[in-house]
Every structure is written in structure tokens, then in C-alpha cells.
Amino acid sequence: MGLRGVLIGCGFFARNHMAAWLDLAGVEIVGVCDTDTTKAESYARDFGVTHWGGDAAGMLHELRPDSVDIATTVGSHRALVELAARHARVVICQKPFAETLEDAAAMVAACQAQGVMLAVHENFRWQRPIREVKALLQAGAIGTPAGCGCRSGMAMTSMPISPIWRKSAIWR
Fold first, then answer.
1. Is 88 buried (19+), middle (13-18) or exposed (0-12) by CB count in 10 A?
2. What's the CA dihedral at 29, 54, 121, 26 to 10 degrees?
3. Coil, strand or helix: which one is 92?
């Protein structure tokens, strides 16, 4: 039996989360939840998930997942992390993690109290363009940089997210 997960939040970026979960062997997303149940139903249909709804507490109680992936806006993170810590072994929370240091500390404490692993999701550093730039810098391809600026934008294409990379740098 593999890892059973629930995704909370069915917005734009959560599509990337779902695509990543589907690529992992031994992982099954057994439920999707969003306060907008139309979005949750659409995700369930699009990704072949059998359970969907708008009540996170009810879904976590019913499904008893191993992991919970929270892909919502920052204002909802504390309540959802604290809820998920009572129902799962692993809680993953989308960045930005918290609105305040107090909220961050409370989320960490809630997971520690339950013996739950807590991770903050930040995927940009693992994207191919970032990894390739890192490798080039480590290989000395441009010498020793004195400074660098990099901006990223999102292009609306047939893909959910398509990075457009623009760079500028000042070399000595």
C-alpha cells in the first residue's frame, strides 16, 4: 500500500501539485478539497480522484490520509496546518508559509506535538532552468559573478505554467 494523500486548495498552482503527485510511484491522491466545491469537483474529474468536497475537517476525518498538501492562500495556512496535523503523518504547506512569526511557530508546534513531519513547499529551486543555472555557476562557466538579477513571469499557454526567463547581470 502506498502513500495516500489529500490536496486542500484547487486553485491555479495546485494543478502543478497534482501533476507532480501523479508522477510519483506509490502515491495516490484520494481526495481534493476546496471551499469552492465547483473547483474541487473539476479537479476530481480532471485528475481521477474519487473524493472531493468543501469540508476539509470532514474529508480528513473520513479519509484518514497519510499526507496533506495545503495549496491555499497564506491566510488559511495556520488553521489548515493545525487541522492536518491531527489527521496525517506528513503535512506540506505552500509558500508563503505564514503571515506572522506567531502563526509559523504555532504551525510548527502543532506538528511537533503530533509527531508529524511538516514541510514548506517551494518548487522553483528544483525547476530545470534554476538547476541548470546553478550547475553553470558551479562549473565556473562565467567566472565569478559580481551580481545577478533574475525575473520570472508566467505565460498563459496551453500548459498550466510556462516560465519565461529574463536575465540581466553585471560581471566584473
1. buried
2. -10
3. strand
Which pTM was predicted?
0.73
Nearest Cα to Cα of residue 17 among 25, 26, 78, 8: 8
Are residues 37 and 54 in contact, defined by beta-carbon separation less than 8 angstroms? Answer: yes
Q: Could you tell me how many residues make up the chain?
A: 172
Contacts of 25 (CB under 8 A, 6+ apart): 2
What does the CA dihedral 4, 111, 121, 81 come to, rounded to 10 degrees? Answer: 80
Q: What are 39-64's pLDDT values in tens digits?
A: 999 999 999 999 999 999 999 999 99
Between strands 90-94 and 67-70, the pairing is parallel
Please, which pLDDT band fits residue 159 given cuts at 50, 70 and 90? very low
Closest CA to 13 of 100, 87, 124: 124
Quick one: pLDDT at residue 50?
94
Are 8 and 71 spatial neighbours (Cβ–Cβ below 8 Å)? Answer: yes
Whose cell is 501523479? That residue is 22
Show the domains of the chain with their CATH numbers: 3-121 (3.40.50.720), 127-170 (no CATH)
Helix residue ranges, H only, 37-91:
37-47, 56-63, 77-85
